[in-house]
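Our preliminary data section would be incomplete without showing what the modeling component actually yields. Below, a chain of 436 amino acids is followed by its predicted structure, encoded as tokens that our downstream tools consume directly.
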Amino acid sequence: MLSLCGRLRVVFCAILLIPLFFSLAYAGGESGWLTREYLTGNWFGFRDKLADSGITFASSYVVDILNNPVGGKRENRVRYDSSLGLDLNADLGKLMDFEGWQFHIAGVYRQGRNLSKDIGNRFVVSSIYGSEQFRLYSLYLDKALMDGRLSFRFGRLGAGDDFASSPLYWNFVNNAIDGNPISIPINIPFTAYPTATWAALVKYKITPEVLSKTGIYNGDDRVGDNKYHGMDFSFRSDKGVMLLQEFSYLLNQAEGSRGLPGNYKIGGIYDTGKFEDFYKDENGNSAAVTGLPKRKHRGTYGFYLHGDQMVYREGGQDSKQGLTVFTVFTFAPPDVNEFSFFVDGGLVYTGLIPKRDKDVTSLGFAYGKWSEDLANYQNDSGQDPQKFEVMMELNYKFMVSPCLYLQPVTQYIFNPGGARNIDDALVVGTRVGVIF
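Predicted structure:
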């Protein structure tokens, strides 16, 4: 007998494979796959009929194949990992006359191995590594009010979907940039794909240019454990809660704006949970020297700043071709946060090569400074103290079709692991993505 998770895995794969089978069996019945928005096509019109009734599907499969020909703890290893996702959204206004309400559920199936374990670096070279299993991700209801200016969402949410995020980050392969600035989920139980927790979120567009987001999330760091497959629905109040607030300024994005668009954000995080001091014992001395239990703290916090700006545009005011620059800074106190300072940034050019208007060229970097308190503890205990790690990435996303891309990538890792005892590493490989 299959377990509950085993049965869910079978259902999940069947949902994906059935439309794929029919699509391939009827290859001549729709436009060629090189022009399709979805690899599986329109399911003989059934996809449009579902959308008209309020049900939409989204599914993607991403594969990373990476190699470190030079550097790291174990040189010249090849590693593969993949992520298969499925999202279903139901417009309850169309389905049940619940105007403004949406229901959303998402799952993911991941497998593979982590090349960063062979390198020994902290900024994982493949952002789709983690939670190698089938698991439930998000499960929530969403309500829009005031012509969409105000919305609230509650259920199983990932904080990384709405805070410290940007579509620009998705152009990268390294997890230091792709998804969210990696210092935030390293420092605190900040849930990000593919882990969600009980939460509530309110978005309010104060003006056409100013957006506020406020969220409260359960601070339990165990909900992501693989043994739960994303289905630990308990709420452990003793683990505290995480409060987030973000303000965004949406430059030149209101209707009729003619200038180059930009996004500027400031965010704050406060977690009410318990955290262990890196350096001090319960009397305020070096725990490495005294051997006494480390001091416990109630709560910690952090801040982040994000800015992105298109600086050159090809074509008219609605064109997405051109060059955009971005940068992110994060700050957190060094007593309980592994990365007290982190910065990443880069350049993203859409349509750099003539007649390849949808292709994306991306150059990015990330720098993380380890907590000085942690470094002092490591030094007192005879370890090599961790100082900093730097990652640089260059990639080119070749859009074979609207539903398929190839993304050759090169990364260079300076000072892997931060302690100067591992050789710098070169990473080369490719990402392949398919939208079903």
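The domain at 54-435 is CATH 2.40.160.180 (Porin). The helical segments are 4-25, 46-53, 92-96, 116-119, 183-187, 287-290, 372-380. Preliminary results of this kind motivate Aim 1 of the renewal.
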